Every structure is written in structure tokens, then in C-alpha cells.
Amino acid sequence: MALKSIIYKADLNISDMDRGYYADHSLTIARHPSETDERMMIRVLAFAIHAAERLEFGKGISDTEEPDIWLKDYTDAIQLWIEVGQPDDRRLLKACGRSEQVIAYSFASASDIWWKAMNSRLDRAKNLRVMNVPSEQSQALEKLAQRNMQLQCTIQDGQIWMSAGDASVQIDLETLKDFA
């Protein structure tokens, strides 16, 4: 018998002063049985960073044809494809062919090893950005995970703060590859 996804709910308040975006999002997050709380919270972080009216979670781990998060226009063309974790180069290059922009958010202590193996293979992808969330910050973010969350994300001058109640985590993203 297949295990079912665990459903998380998050009320996410976003104050992105860099983009002038201020909104509340009620998120329903299906956490795949093989997904950790850490990875799920990186998905929430990526959603907060790129929040827009039509941004939505994809099937990600459950479906190789969909990203973790995507933004489609009204014609169903994919404007933004977001991957979380350490996807292989074939997946990222395929996404680059299907979307205007692709952003990958790596995390965990093995990110450096993964990126050294991927870097040369992804040079030609001009519409790809690869960001890294330092391991200690992603682990601190994981501690904010609860089945029902009240989250606040503040973005200013490139710095990101995610908080829940009295707990707060500062995220300093590292750019591994930027758009060409």
C-alpha cells in the first residue's frame, strides 16, 4: 500500500520590500512521504521569495514532468520553474527548454559536492539560476515546520527573515549560478 502525502497548512504573510510585494497567502502543502520537513520548508521559502498571484506548488517529487513550484501565464506557458534540492542536470536542462526562467534552490551539507559535479554541465543554460541555502539556515528553517503554521516572511535589501511566533530565521542565499 502506497503511503499518502501529509497535508500542512500555512498562513504566509509576505512583506517583500525589494519587489514592493505585500500579500497574505493561505497555502496547502502536500508533503510527499519521502520528503523531509527541511525540504518542505525550503519550498515554502522559495514560494515566499517569488510570490505572485498565479504562483503555485507543482507535484515535484511525485511527478517528473512538474516542478516543485511554477508560475504560468494565462496561456499556460511556463514563466518560472522552481526546483528544490539537488536535481540532476538532465532535469534542469529539460526545465530550461520548457520555461522562461528556471531557479534551483539547493540545501544540505552535500550541496557543494553536488554543485561541483553539475557546474560544467549547466554552463550552457542561460535561463538558469542556482541558489544555495546554507545548511545551518535550512536546518533552522526546518524547526519552524508544523502542521498548521502562521509564518511571516520579510525581504529587504536581499536579506530574508522567516518567522513563526517567537522563532525567527535569517536566510542569506548564496548564488552559485546566475542568469547569463
UniProtKB/TrEMBL annotation:
Q: SMART domains per the record?
A: YaeQ
The name of this protein is YaeQ family protein
Query: What CDD domains is this protein classified in?
Result: YaeQ-like
Gene3D superfamilies from the xrefs? Restriction endonuclease-like alpha-beta roll domain
Lineage top rank: taxon: Bacteria
Q: Taxonomic lineage of this organism?
A: Bacteria, Pseudomonadati, Pseudomonadota, Betaproteobacteria, Burkholderiales
Q: Which Pfam families match?
A: YaeQ
